[in-house]
Write a structure and sequence with these properties.
single chain, Acyl_transf_3_dom, Peptidoglycan/LPS O-acetylase OafA/YrhL
Length: 411
């Protein structure tokens, strides 16, 4: 579903002076960015499973050790898109139901595939007992550090997203009413908390993980929310993409920087989060002002729509394809590792496409149709209808935030 997008020539004053962007709905470059982000995570997991050995393995590790920060980019993107599509008249109940419809059917299938893989080709991902698996099904396992990869190992990030979705209706209203100065303070505080997260986890009396405890990842999401609100109001004009992209690359590299001496404070993480946030805002600004990027092209849009399913299955495929090697770690020279990696990629993409078409879209349509039928029987004041095809938030006029970034099924 497409809603009209404001197009502004580069020569107009708005190109230099920002104005409110409340009428802008489609941000297709952010859909393409989701696929680029998934590729970073895919590359990181190829490294973790040691597809490449020798010098090729060293080079691959140099390029993709930081690929795990792709999840950080997903979290920022999620907050940005949800805030961009926020409409005050939508009820919290409607919002939560849309989020369930968006992620839960595919999540359940992913857990089932993970249990099948654990029982056959990849026994090393078996969980110790039923409780961690049940916690994963309910998307709460990340709150117990020892269970963070129970069930489907990749779905730990969904535990964080579920927490973000739970808190969003309570966060967005005060933030949407906040002054620009208050939003800037939120941005600075979010970056500081990103750097402090490892230190907080280290001194916390309750077991926490800076990587997987949802509360410690919340600042990344909140940062995306605050920047979207600043940008929509016209209070902030993001830098051009040609400047933001190098900063994002630098932030990616700085994620591997050491912590401050004698502490667990990780200033490099703040640089990573900040660089990625600038990239998201720059891409959104390019789309909003009629300067859509290559990420808005049709192929990237289709891949972006499949990215959620791809993310949920890619690690299972990588581990299954390499399961016949000792300990599941091929460590091959590059002429043999490249075809193996391409095979894993092809299988994961094909499986993701099938799940997207056969599970994700139909299940979401059915669940949202159920909500609309209930609303017709018992209408709720302020309830917002939603499109039957909506990966991260719900927007106005029945359009999901996924549709707001130019996709039909996910953010």
């Amino acid at each position: 579903m497409t809603i009209s997008t404001m197009t502004v020539p580069l020569s107009t004053p708005m190109a230099k002076t920002p104005g409110p962007l409340d009428t802008v709905r489609t941000l297709p470059s952010l859909t393409g960015l989701r696929w680029a982000t998934a590729m970073l995570i895919f590359g990181h997991h190829l490294m973790a499973v040691n597809y490449f050995g020798g010098t090729a393995g060293d080079v691959w590790g140099f390029l993709f050790e930081a690929g795990k920060t792709g999840v950080t980019l997903f979290f920022i993107l999620s907050g940005f898109v949800l805030a961009w599509g926020f409409k005050p008249q939508q009820s919290a109940r409607s919002f939560w139901w849309h989020r369930i419809a968006r992620i839960y059917p595919l999540h359940l299938v992913g857990v089932g595939l993970a249990l099948l893989a654990a029982a056959t080709l990849v026994p090393e991902i078996r969980s110790n007992g039923a409780a961690p698996v049940v916690a994963n099904v309910l998307l709460v396992n990340g709150w117990v550090p020892d269970w963070w990869q129970a069930g489907n190992p990749a779905s730990w990030s969904l535990v964080c997203e579920a927490f973000f979705y739970l808190t969003f209706p309570f966060l967005i209203r005060p933030l949407a009413r906040a002054s620009n100065r208050a939003l800037v303070i939120v941005v600075v505080a979010s970056l500081a908390l990103a750097a402090l997260a490892p230190q907080i986890a280290a001194v916390s009396p309750v077991p926490m993980s800076a990587a997987s405890t949802p509360l410690l990842r919340l600042p990344e999401f909140v940062l995306g929310v605050a920047l979207a609100l600043l940008m929509k109001s016209g209070a902030w004009m993001p830098m051009r993409l040609r400047f933001a992209l190098p900063l994002a690359v630098a932030g990616y590299a700085l994620s591997e920087a050491p912590t401050l001496p004698g502490t667990e404070v990780h200033v490099g993480l703040a640089a990573t989060v900040g660089g990625f946030a600038l990239l998201v805002a720059a891409l959104a600004n390019a789309d909003a002002r009629g300067r859509s990027t290559f990420l808005a092209r049709p192929l990237w849009q289709e891949l972006g729509r499949v990215s959620f399913a791809f993310y949920l299955v890619h690690l299972l495929v990588i581990a299954s394809v390499s399961s016949s090697w000792p300990d599941g770690h091929p460590q091959l020279p590059w002429p043999r590792a490249v075809p193996l990696a391409l095979a894993a990629f092809g299988i994961a993409l094909a499986l993701a496409w099938v799940l997207h078409k056969a599970v994700e879209i139909p299940a979401q349509r059915w669940l949202l149709r159920y909500e609309r039928s209930r609303a017709r029987v018992r209408p709720a004041a302020g309830d917002v209808r939603s499109s039957p095809v909506a990966g991260a938030g719900v927007g106005a006029s029945g359009v999901s935030a996924e549709a707001l970034v130019g996709q039909r099924t996910r953010s």
